[in-house]
């Protein structure tokens, strides 16, 4: 069997040693793999993606839609290709979550957009931060959320303002290119790349190379679904690599030196799977080729028939890591990769909260808002504040936090106080530190419940109610609380100690009320867990949004009462 035939074998085909399927059985439907089944589109999305690449919509936005307004936008552009430039229509205010599943999409949709600013590696200068903040003030009703993929999201954007927003972003080398859509999304990168004392390898040159060579490349702009990348060289493994389509994790090979451990096929959503190691050691000079190879496998062999089965994780689940690596090496790289060990388990948290010394003797400060919520004015003030204290660089993180870089030692404490006044705590409570929330019903058309305010209320309530445990130093060191507005998993509910999936819950009087299905016991390497794992749904364990603080308080008090010496909450 040729390599190509091996690579293209459908999971429905008989494997060697297995009984062949009876001839009378109907042939399995094609998966829509381009290299196996041909490129004829098998669903409406694949049809319009082939008819006109999503990247091409930019020209129409600038020359037609921005001039003639929302009602002039072609439907396929609006609900499809706009994403290739980071634009989604947002939810009309005031629509109850119970109606999300019953209304038509156009009934849920407002004439405003969410705009996602792509920040590869989370790396920002204060000048760039100020530009984003001012765009928010001028065009986005002062909205600005840090996402858990290192982007900044603005809301209330009018299509008329998009060209000017792009002009301002691009004047400081920022963009919204492929911030959404079936493309290589923002590249997660270690927020302490290049500055941490204990860094194994600085991934910054690699992230720059990937962004410059491949983002906006039409050859990679029609993938079966979204494609997520994470790269870190920090021992805390701070980029949630287990839930990305492709990830490179820095390590020292005992014989070959510094390089990366290759992971493939992680993703959450409604069918969560953790990524798998291919057992391959990637030298720094091989890393860009390996990334391109994995992305190209997804483009060429990914399943395109059903969008619910199109993520890379489904291909990996069928092929397995051995075959995936073989196809990568034989068909895409043209050489074998060396075998390599796993990176050692992290021993420090990957959220980088607090004050830490850099390798050059300056300091970095990790600080958190509540559940990623900020405003444009805050971003502008933050840029001014950092510059006044001698810093001109910062990073967003995959934990909805910020890391300020290059702070001189004598400026640390004044800056910590000023950050606090701006709503960014460098010494947060365990609740504030561990809570993240997705966009939720405020703006998201798929949402069933509110999330950001629910998170803020829960954090404030828990800080007040559990003050006695703070005083007696009995609180767990870490506790992650992740809140989603619907069954999708934008806030990674399956990877939290307590993950909450938004849903409407029945009440005794018959009126459904917003609430959550509870997942317990998930976590990733960056949470300092011994073993990454997905949380489990506890059957029947649901909590209303109003009762959420009560529920978490009970769980924490039970942990404090029952835990053994040294046991973490995750255990
Ligand atoms: Fe929207 Fe659901 Fe994602 Fe939250 S989890 S942002 S509600 S799609």
TrEMBL record:
> Which keywords annotate this record?
4Fe-4S, Heme, Iron, Iron-sulfur, Metal-binding, Oxidoreductase, Thioether bond
Originating species: Arthrobacter ginsengisoli
**Protein's name according to its UniProt entry:** assimilatory sulfite reductase (ferredoxin)
- Domain Nitrite/Sulfite reductase ferredoxin-like residues, every copy: 106-171, 356-421
Q: Which Pfam families match?
A: NIR_SIR, NIR_SIR_ferr
Protein family (similarity comment): Belongs to the nitrite and sulfite reductase 4Fe-4S domain family.
| GO function term, MF aspect, one | sulfite reductase (ferredoxin) activity
Role summary: Catalyzes the reduction of sulfite to sulfide, a step in the biosynthesis of sulfur-containing amino acids and cofactors.
Q: What class of enzyme is it?
A: oxidoreductase
Q: What is the top-level taxon of the source organism?
A: Bacteria
**Region (Disordered) residue spans:** 1-51
- Gene3D superfamilies for this protein: 3.90.480.20, Sulfite Reductase Hemoprotein, domain 1
Does the record bear Oxidoreductase in its keywords?
A: yes
């Amino acid at each position: 069997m040729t390599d190509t035939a091996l690579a293209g074998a459908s999971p429905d085909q008989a494997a060697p040693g297995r009984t062949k399927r009876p001839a009378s059985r109907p042939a399995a439907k094609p998966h829509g793999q381009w290299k196996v089944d041909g490129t004829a589109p098998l669903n409406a999305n694949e049809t319009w993606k082939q008819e006109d690449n999503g990247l091409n919509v930019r020209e129409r936005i600038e020359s037609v839609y921005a001039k003639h307004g929302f009602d002039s936008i072609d439907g396929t552009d609006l609900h499809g290709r706009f994403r290739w430039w980071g634009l989604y229509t947002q939810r009309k205010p005031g629509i109850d979550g119970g109606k999300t599943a019953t209304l038509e999409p156009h009934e849920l949709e407002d004439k405003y957009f969410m705009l996602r600013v792509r920040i590869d590696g989370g790396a920002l200068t204060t000048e760039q931060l100020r530009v984003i903040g001012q765009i928010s003030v001028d065009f986005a009703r002062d909205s600005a959320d840090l996402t858990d993929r290192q982007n900044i999201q603005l809301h209330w954007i009018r299509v008329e303002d998009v060209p000017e927003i792009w002009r301002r972003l691009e004047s400081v080398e920022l963009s919204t290119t492929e911030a959404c859509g079936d493309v290589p999304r923002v590249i997660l990168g270690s927020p302490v790349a290049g500055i941490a004392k204990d860094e194994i390898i600085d991934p910054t040159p690699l992230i720059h190379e990937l962004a410059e060579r491949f983002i906006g490349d039409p050859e990679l702009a029609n993938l079966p679904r979204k494609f997520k990348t994470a790269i870190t060289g920090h021992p805390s493994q701070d980029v949630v690599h287990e839930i990305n389509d492709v990830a490179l994790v820095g390590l020292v090979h005992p014989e070959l030196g510094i390089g990366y451990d290759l992971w493939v096929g992680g993703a959450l959503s409604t069918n969560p799977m953790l990524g798998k190691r291919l057992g391959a050691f990637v030298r720094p000079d091989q890393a860009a080729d390996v990334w391109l190879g994995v992305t190209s496998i997804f483009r060429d062999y990914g399943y395109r028939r059903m969008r619910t089965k199109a993520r890379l994780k489904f291909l990996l689940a069928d092929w397995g890591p051995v075959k995936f690596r073989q196809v990568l090496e034989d068909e895409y790289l043209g050489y074998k990769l060396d075998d390599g060990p796993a990176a050692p388990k992290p021993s420090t948290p990957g959220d980088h909260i607090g004050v830490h010394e850099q390798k050059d003797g300056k300091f970095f400060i990790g600080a958190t808002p509540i559940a990623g919520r900020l405003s444009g004015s805050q971003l502008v003030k933050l840029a001014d504040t950092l510059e006044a204290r001698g810093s001109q660089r910062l990073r967003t993180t995959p934990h909805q936090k910020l890391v300020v870089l290059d702070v001189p030692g004598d400026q640390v404490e004044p800056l910590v106080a000023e950050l606090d006044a701006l709503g960014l705590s460098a010494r947060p409570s365990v609740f504030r530190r561990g809570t993240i929330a997705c966009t939720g019903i405020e703006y998201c058309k798929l949402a069933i419940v509110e999330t950001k305010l629910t998170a803020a209320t829960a954090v404030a309530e828990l800080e007040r109610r559990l003050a006695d445990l703070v005083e007696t130093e009995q609180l767990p060191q870490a506790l992650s609380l992740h809140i989603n507005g619907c069954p999708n998993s934008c806030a990674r509910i399956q990877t939290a100690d307590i993950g909450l999936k938004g849903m409407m819950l029945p009440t005794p009087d018959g009126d459904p009320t917003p609430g959550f299905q509870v997942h317990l016991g998930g976590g990733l390497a960056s949470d300092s867990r011994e073993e990454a794992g997905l949380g489990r749904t506890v059957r029947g364990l649901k909590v209303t949004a109003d009762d959420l603080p009560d529920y978490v308080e009970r769980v924490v008090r039970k942990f404090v009462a029952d835990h053994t010496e040294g046991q973490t909450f995750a255990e």
